[in-house]
Design brief:
Bound molecules: 1,3-dihydroxyacetonephosphate
CATH superfamily: Aldolase class I
Order of helices and strands: EHEHEHEHHEHHHEHHEHEH
CATH architecture: Alpha-Beta Barrel
Structural class: alpha/beta
CATH class: Alpha Beta
Shape: globular
């Protein structure tokens, strides 16, 4: 059995005051449950996470990382810097970065490598647009996105990633993939991982993201290949985020 993992993606939300309340609420409500939990916050708040979450059950991480190790790359944040702030995770290839910053499959793959090299767990996001789904291209799209990453990693490294299936049409729209729709894509991704490394197929967590809420989380995470969630909006309220963690 793979342990369940629930990760909050705060996106570009937060303030020191609001974060303090939200983080305290989450930590206070975390039971000794089976699910692991983490928050991926804007980079300026990583120190606040390190200060308030050290020693707690809640892990933290970032939302993006540079492909470069250091140097003249204004505005970029290196993976080693994220490690320096105690991050365990970093999201790479979120659809918002692909759409608004033109990130390619190859760049996303390089980011995953940079994260692994710094001892971080990359959460590799894949997912199709509505047009791609309607054209019957869902599997082709997600297989291509994941294969760019798999090509750069050896079998042992593949086992250290997390994959997140986030259908673009379900993000922030209130439209969720049905459990059956999501499971179908998760099973496809798992067989792709298995083809690369049997162990990776068994070990790698595949999270679902896209309007996951307290009222649909249990049913989604009950699917055989859905190992947790990557949560946007509902991660900004402690009660909702905790309800999803408890549903895992
Ligand atoms: P929502 O949960 O707000 O749909 O966002 C999902 C997401 O993009 C998480 O990375």
């Amino acid at each position: 059995m793979r342990p369940k993992l629930v990760v909050g993606n705060w996106k570009m939300n937060g303030s020191r005051a609001n974060n303090a309340t939200l983080l305290a609420g989450i930590v206070e409500g975390l039971g000794q449950g089976k699910a692991q939990a983490a928050v991926c916050v804007p980079a300026p708040y990583l120190q606040q996470c390190a200060d308030t979450l050290a020693g707690s059950e809640l892990a933290w991480g970032a939302q993006d990382v540079s492909i470069h190790a250091s140097g003249a790359y204004t505005g970029e944040v290196a993976a080693s810097m994220l490690s320096d702030f105690g991050c365990r995770y970093v999201i790479v290839g979120h659809s918002e970065r692909r759409a608004y910053h033109g990130e390619t499959d190859q760049q996303v793959a390089q980011k995953a490598v940079a994260a692994l090299n710094a001892g971080l767990t990359p959460i590799v996001c894949v997912g199709e647009t509505l047009d791609q789904r309607e054209a019957g291209q869902t599997n082709v799209v997600v297989n291509k996105q994941l294969s760019a990453v798999l090509e750069l990693l050896d079998g042992a490294a593949v086992q250290r990633i997390v994959v997140a299936y986030e259908p673009v049409w379900a993000i922030g729209t209130g439209k969720t993939a049905t459990p059956a729709m999501a499971q179908e894509v998760h099973a496809e991704l798992r067989s792709q991982l298995r083809a690369r490394s049997l162990d990776a197929g068994e070990k790698v967590a595949i999270l679902y993201g896209g309007s996951m809420k307290p009222d649909n989380a249990a049913e989604l995470m009950a699917q055989a290949d859905i190992d947790g969630g990557l949560i946007g909006g509902a991660a900004l309220k402690a009660a909702d985020f905790l309800a999803i963690i408890n549903a895992a």
